[in-house]
Amino acid sequence: MHMHSAMKTGMRVCGEQALSRCHIHRTYISSRYGRANGQRVQSQREEVLLPTMPVRNKDVTDGAWDDADRHAVDEALKDAEKIARLGIKTGVDHTQVLLGQRIEDLEKLCTLTGQPTYRAKQMCDAVYRKGVKRIQDISNIPKAWKESLVEEHGVSVGRSTIHHRVVAADGTQKFLLRLHDGLVVETVGIPADGSHRLTVCVSSQIGCPMRCTFCATGKGGFARNLMPHEIVDQVLTVQEEFGQRVSNVVFMGMGEPLLNIPSVMRAHEIINKELNIGARHVTISTVGVPNAILKLARYATQSTLAISIHAPNQQIRETIVPSAKAYPLQALMKDCSEYFRVTGRRVTFEYTLLAGVNDDVQQAKDLAALLKEHGNMKSHVNVIPWNPVDESEFKRPSRKNVTTFVRVLEQAGIKTSIRVTRGLEAAAACGQLRNKHQTTPVHMDG
Question: Is position 186 annotated as part of the catalytic site?
Answer without folding.
Answer: yes
